[in-house]
Design goal:
This protein has about 600 residues and is α/β, with parallel strands linked by helices. The chain folds into 3 domains: about 220 residues, Rossmann fold (3-Layer(aba) Sandwich), CATH 3.40.50.720; about 90 residues; about 240 residues, Rossmann fold (3-Layer(aba) Sandwich). It contains 17 helices and 15 strands. The chain has an 8-stranded parallel sheet with strand order 8-15-14-13-12-9-10-11, sandwiched between helices. A 7-stranded parallel sheet has the order 3-2-1-4-5-6-7, with helices on both faces. α1 packs across α10, α7 packs antiparallel against α8 and α14 crosses α15.
Length: about 600
């Protein structure tokens, strides 16, 4: 009897690539598989191939769910409704679906694309896992595939420039896998994440590396082209990589005709040819540099990733590794100490004539009191304060803050409104020294895995997409026009501090409570690290976005004084040269 005979595996994003390879391994080992994805044709082709691999004498089946986007609540719910109505028991759920997302500096990343990437990678993993519980039984396994470009070891970050929504999603997925191991213990369901590292795939070679190389060209401009012209050219040229010489020549000529705008056609054609060659050269260099961080200099094959996933589904191995994030990437990636505890001490800055803006999404009274403490700290040292309070903040907290400081109730989830109010503050109060965003705390819930989809979406918005929305507005405020011309970022000044969410405090804090908070901290850590690497190393800017995480693993109360000291450091000259961009100010370790 084959190892997975009479078992059922559901693999998301399984029409092509790693997902298809995993489905293949399951079938070869006797399992029935459920494959799903957005595109019907690849799934149908994969199904035919899988049916041909069913071992002789084994009564396995291949089932397709086409047109299912893991981020689509109704599509996923409907699929699991159908499985439940058919009395299907799923033994293994493999969260594999993913997209590259925007490959560009965060300041230039469309927020809709940011949200879409988070929706597919993180929310798709959450909702798929939660809905799968309806058709799973004790002994079931949830295996989540994430990336090595998030955290290498506890408290170390791997920034992945130009991939901020991707890294935020992946960091949170790692922590979500850990959380599910806590919350699903009573159901007997095991949760493990694995980071396979660099894998041979068209997505890397044809999308990620070329787009990253193209972004380097956009940031600096190329020959006679401005960043906007480089961007327009890239959109025409990237698809030509890997094509036959005659196709490339025709494509370049067509792009030159389309984008000449009155310039000399022959000159533009030569420039575009040079640009494409440069992009290919950089992409190949990135690939080579990554391979040199691996002992044998080899990326994994998709079949090897599939083999590792099936090993994690082994009953005994899964019990040992429940709740773990397996760093199976084999990559030695040198990292700076991006995370610290208390910030370095600095002389108290004089804020006279400078404005500090608070964007507030408070959850409880202690959040409002934190805003009060920090705003008084600014005013006491000569600064001016404006508080923009989210409409979703409870009314009594809105009134508490508004009664003490110049405040407006706004929709901080709306980028246009954020930009408008930042402009108003800059006009009425003077040049903005820094922006402090308060996320508020995680609401008390017994289990995140028991939340409705609407409740989960609210948390994603509160702790991931809203901080990103505010951050992008802040960057545009500090560098007007920087999105279109990133050269404007060079030597610019500015600071933003994201505070929260807090670890729970008290003597009887549970592992589940800490793990819930870590899901969202797990998004903000790599997000902050990635954006700051872009600002410092790529854009040559002195603007910094810091994350401050109050509370400690021992359950001690957070100190607003330490957060105030962190802001003092953030707006000092020392901050721009610091590799540390996330501070757990109440931790002593």
């Amino acid at each position: 009897m084959l190892k997975f005979q009479d078992k059922v595996a559901l693999v998301t994003g399984s029409g092509t690539g790693i997902g298809k390879a995993i489905a293949t391994k399951f079938v070869e080992n006797g399992a029935s598989v459920i494959i799903l994805g957005r595109r019907k044709e690849p799934l149908e082709e994969a199904a035919k191939e899988l049916e041909g691999k069913i071992p002789q004498g084994v009564n396995s089946s291949i089932r397709i769910f086409a047109g299912v986007d893991v981020a689509d609540e109704s599509a996923m719910t409907k699929m699991f409704d159908e499985l439940k109505n058919d009395n299907v028991t799923v033994d293994y759920v493999i969260n594999n679906a993913g997209v590259s997302g925007p490959v560009t500096c965060f300041a230039n990343a469309p927020l809709d694309d940011f949200k879409s990437t988070v929706g597919i990678h993180l929310t798709g993993t959450f909702w798929g896992s939660v809905q799968a519980l309806r058709v799973m039984k004790e002994g079931g396994k949830i295996i989540t595939i994430s990336t090595f470009f998030t955290e290498e070891r506890p408290l170390e970050q791997r920034p992945y420039r130009f991939r901020s929504p991707y890294t935020a999603s992946q960091g949170a997925k790692n922590r979500l896998a850990e959380l599910m191991s806590w919350e699903l213990t009573d159901k007997g369901i095991i949760s493990i994440a694995t980071n396979p590292g660099p894998v041979h795939s068209d997505r890397i070679y044809k999308t990620v590396y070329p787009k990253a190389a193209a972004e380097f060209m956009r940031v600096s401009g190329f020959e006679e082209l401005t960043p906007e012209e480089v961007d327009a050219a890239n959109k025409e040229l990237l698809s030509l990589l890997g094509e036959e010489d005659n196709v490339v020549k025709e494509g370049i000529a067509s792009a030159a005709q389309k984008l000449a705008n009155g310039k000399d056609i022959q000159k533009i054609t030569e420039t575009f040819a040079n640009l494409l060659n440069k992009i290919q050269s950089i992409a190949e260099k990135v690939q080579t540099n990554t391979s040199h961080m691996i002992a044998n200099k080899e990326f994994l094959a998709q079949s090897q990733v599939a083999e590792s996933v099936l090993n994690l589904c082994d009953d005994e191995i899964a019990k040992i590794l429940n709740g773990k994030v397996i760093p199976g990437d084999r990559v030695f990636y040198p990292v700076k100490p991006h995370i610290g505890t208390t910030t370095p001490g600095v002389h108290q800055p004089d804020f006279t004539g400078r404005a500090v803006v608070f964007t507030v999404d408070a959850t409880d009274k202690t959040d409002a009191e934190r805003v009060e403490y920090l705003a008084q700290h600014v005013e006491k040292n000569g600064g001016k304060v404006a508080c923009f309070i989210s409409e979703s903040t409870p009314q009594e907290l809105q009134e508490y803050i508004s009664g003490k400081f110049h405040s407006h109730i706004i929709n901080i989830k709306n980028p246009e409104e954020v930009s408008r109010w930042l402009n108003t503050a800059n006009t009425n109060l003077g040049k903005i020294l820094g922006v402090i965003h308060v996320t508020g705390k995680i609401p008390e819930v017994p289990k995140l895995t028991e939340l409705s989809r609407a409740e989960w979406d609210e948390l994603i918005e509160k702790f991931i997409t809203t901080p990103a929305t505010v951050a992008q507005g802040v960057l545009e405020q500090f560098v007007p026009g920087g999105r279109k011309d990133p050269r404007l970022y060079k030597d610019t000044q500015g600071a933003m501090m994201i505070i929260g969410p807090d670890l729970p405090s008290g003597r009887k804090v549970t592992g589940t409570q800490r793990a819930q908070v870590e899901v969202f901290r797990g998004a903000l850590r790599p997000f902050t690290t990635t954006v700051n690497q872009e600002l410092s190393d790529v854009l040559k800017s002195n603007i910094r976005i810091f994350s401050i995480f109050p509370g400690s693993v021992s359950g001690t109360e957070s100190s607003n004084e330490r957060i105030a000291q962190a802001f003092n450091f953030l707006v000092s000259e020392n901050a721009a040269s610091s590799a540390q961009v996330t501070f757990c100010v109440d931790e002593l370790r």
